Amino acid sequence: MPRFVDVALPIPLDRAFTYGLGELEACVGARVLVPFSGQKLMGIVVRVHDEAPVADDPSKPIEIKRVEQVLDDEALLSDELMELGRWIAAYYCAPLGETLRGMVPLMAEVKRHFVYRIGERGRAVLYEGAAKGSSLRSKLSADDQNREYAALNYLEAGDAVKAATIRSATGANKALLDGMVKKKWLVREAVAESRDARRVEMVAVLRDSQGLGIREQGLGGEGSGPRVQGPGPRAQGSEGDSVAVRGIEPEPEVPDAGHPDGAGAGENVDRVSGLEFRVSGLGPVSEGPVGQTPDGQIPAELSVAARRLPKLNENQLAVMAELAGCGGRELVRELRVRLERAGVPESTLGTLVKRGLVRLEEVAQSFSVSGLGAHGRRFAHEHRLNEAQTAALATIVAAMDKGGFAPHLLFGVTGSGKTAVYIAAIQQALDRGRSALLLVPEIGLTPGTAMHMVAAFGGEVALLHSQLTPDKRAEQWHRIRRGEARVVIGTRSAVFSPLTNLGLILVDEEHDGAYKQEETPRYHGRDVAVMRAKLAGCAVVLGSATPSLESWHNAERGRYARIDMLERVSNRPMPAVELVDMREEFRATGQEQIFSRKLLEETQATLDRGEQAIILLNRRGYSFVVMCRKCGEKMECENCAISLTYHKGQGSGIREQGLEGDVAPPGSRLECHYCGFKVGVPKACPHCTSEHLYFLGAGSQQGEERLAGLFPGARIGRMDRDTVRTRGDMERLLERLHSGEINLLVGTQMIAKGHDIHGVTFVGVVGADFALGLPDFRSAERVFQLLTQVSGRAGRGDLPGKVLVQTYQPAHYVHEFSQRHDFVGFAAREMYFRRAMKYPPLSVLANVLVQGETLEEVLGWSARIGRWLERKKFPGVRVLGPAPAPISRIKRIYRYHLLLKAEQRSRLGVLLKEFVPWLEAEEIPRRNVVVDVDAVHLM
Ligand SMILES: Nc1ncnc2c1ncn2[C@@H]1O[C@H](COP(=O)(O)OP(=O)(O)OP(=O)(O)O)[C@@H](O)[C@H]1O
Ligand SMILES: [Zn+2]
């Protein structure tokens, strides 16, 4: 028996620690509790071995500490994920323990109790036992054997149950249960002890992944013929019994049942009688490349192998149908109301839970499952994939079928219908018995994509977003690991989901900076996704209308296969983009205005036509600079080297004529957007006591106020981080846009994110090229992305769109290319600049950020690092700096940085390998020196 384990601990040290095991057993990838400098820490076993550590000084033998507790019987992190963790730690120069900690969201589980679930082997035993009687070879007494069977029976439905509950129901005590865990009949899991009952409610979930073969066919579809988008039945369960199930088909035009005057009793009953299980024989699942059928349909995708068909009475069918009709899950509270109206007894739900057809889950109340019904119906209108989509899908499916690592860049213009391709591709992965992962930059900002997925895959989706509580996150994690959720949608850390048998990884809006983690480990979710696909040996698709130059470069070098979708769906044209030269505008009007005459005209015309307009003002707040007219000083944050932003209060007393020297309305404040620091608006300049304060630069709040004055009849909405704080806020705002309740939307770059609002025909852009002046080599790329993405919101419905961009730099090449929707041209031009300046992707870059509480120590450390690098002269690496970071102080922390530019990654690797030990030897604290490999944000 191995005697030692090496444990990676969540501390900023780049090594593992050896502990003795004693009588305990542990495997690589399991969590353990160990003593560490006076405290108890949870770490992950990275090696199990027999090599006693040798002391440097033999006269002082090392005292080996013991592992206190092993928390997992099996590896929590699979070999694949452990390997990924090691790669991240090495590539991003991060301590392994801190890296692994971020990969398992279960650190909150220590003081928890255990629950038991039936395992695969337990099921086999149960069925065999039923057929042949109990095993004679067991050492247990006949009574204990009976208790074991009773426990298996009790757990058969698959739910997780506490030991105490099992004992009272079956007499099996904890020792007996743990014996069963050892035999792998049962699985043991740690879960949270207590829940805050007020914040949690129950959701009923259709258990379709359990081989029951029941799927809703579509929400409002016609119900026949193969369809590509939307929920379709798929292969599940064992292959043995070939039975195809066409599933439950709710009738098309059922009104949103959640609506008070919606589904009455009659309608629900109608829906019940409309149910049908059609069973037919079936051919093999999907042979041959998809997309080669003449009509562009996916062949054989309706093939479903189901293990057994449950017999249900009418009431039970009603509940199943109701659940299927709202995407496979619904709040129990809501469901009850509707079932009561339909005259279905309350106990029916309980019966279905007992029969294992429906599962109850707890959700935090903030998770708005309710409303999915309405969303589901809106999303449900399905499209037959067009030629480009079909070809894209065929390429992805071919890669999946060929097997092995296959990276792709899906370059699809805005409105080309990438989401439908994602859904179809995920479906194909599931049909092949494999799992799929979809990464999105931020679920809260684009709830649409997630809703589409939930509508399409119902209970098989695990949604991992930032608003999950640690408990919820842990629960989702277990669900995924058990294979109950084979489709994971989430933000960057979802790339660590414990999915097995991955078939496909999709990264939507792969250019988005939100994929970059700005704390240790500073990984890039997109690049980790590619690595995960490599380790899993599966296909990966990075999708965007404005790919990052990194991915574009990889495609040009042939590392990624490129898939193009160059046209919008349904022959919709790209919007016409026009520039307004704001210097001309000033000359003509003699006034500095936020909005040009042309922009106001176009907005008015759009509203007059009954269409919707969007106006981008990419700064939040009212004014983003407050300056003294007399001494010229700007109001800065106490903690950061950043101008304070003026946020206007909502109190009365708003003056129409500017704000100069005036008291701001009640509730007004100056705010730092980096640290959150707030102060009241001073009556006089703190530097020179002059009363002439000057408010410059219009943010979205001012934009809204001005537009309200200019268009009194407009129904205005604002979308920025002040008005949208939660996913719920965003969902409500989008709902009001979809319904047309809002016809003029003003906001920051949030409005540019993948929203698909069909009524928008005009987009106005104010001050977006301001960012061209930022000291970051990616500034042109970012402005191009923003212009293209925001333009992409126009003309997504039946009417064509128009875009007006106000600029002070009309000659900049960003405008030239974005006006023509020419990403390829832009990329070529930008690549030329990157090559000349040796910037990524034509070099490898790491940002070494030195930070500390006093300027002296920061200067001292960065100077020493600079001198060391100069002395070492690492070949193939250029060092820029040390210099103050563009934002030289944030949250009272001083910041200096050095940029390392290497011709090849291996050259940078050589440097970094020596750098970290050198820091340690020099006693420069690790947490004060951040090494940001492939840095995205250089400010
Ligand atoms: N084959 C199709 N025929 C008609 N409409 C389609 C088809 N496929 C998708 N659509 C619709 O086209 C619209 C745009 O699709 P989607 O939102 O997926 O675009 P996208 O490529 O993700 O764009 P963006 O990059 O701007 O987010 C949606 O309203 C979608 O329902
Ligand atoms: Zn600040």
Short description:
With 939 residues, the protein is α/β, with parallel strands linked by helices. It is 32% helix and 20% strand. The chain folds into seven domains: 4-109, GIY-YIG endonuclease; 113-191; 201-380, no CATH class; 387-567, P-loop containing nucleotide triphosphate hydrolases (Rossmann fold, 3-Layer(aba) Sandwich), CATH 3.40.50; 572-620 and 699-839, P-loop containing nucleotide triphosphate hydrolases (Rossmann fold), CATH 3.40.50; 621-698, no CATH class; 844-933, Alpha-Beta Plaits.
Report on this model:
The chain folds into seven domains: 4-109, PriA, 3(prime) DNA-binding domain (GIY-YIG endonuclease), CATH 3.40.1440.60; 113-191; 201-380, no CATH class; 387-567, Rossmann fold (3-Layer(aba) Sandwich); 572-620 and 699-839, P-loop containing nucleotide triphosphate hydrolases (Rossmann fold, 3-Layer(aba) Sandwich); 621-698, no CATH class; 844-933, 2-Layer Sandwich (Alpha-Beta Plaits). It is 32% helix and 20% strand. The strands form nine sheets. Strands 16-17-15-18-19-14-20 form a seven-stranded parallel β-sheet, sandwiched between helices. A six-stranded parallel β-sheet has the order 21-31-30-22-29-28, with helices on both faces. Strands 2-1-4-3-5 form a five-stranded antiparallel β-sheet. Strand 16, helix 15 and strand 17 form a beta-alpha-beta unit. The longest helix has 18 residues, at 855-872. The model is unreliable at 192-199, 209-309, 365-381 and 653-662 (pLDDT under 50). Adenosine-5'-triphosphate is lined by residues 383-386, 389, 412, 414-420, 545, 569-570, 754, 756, 792, 796. The site of zinc ion has 8 residues, from loops. This is Replication restart protein PriA. It catalyses: Couples ATP hydrolysis with the unwinding of duplex DNA by translocating in the 3'-5' direction; ATP + H2O = ADP + phosphate + H(+). Belongs to the helicase family. PriA subfamily. Its cofactor is Zn(2+).
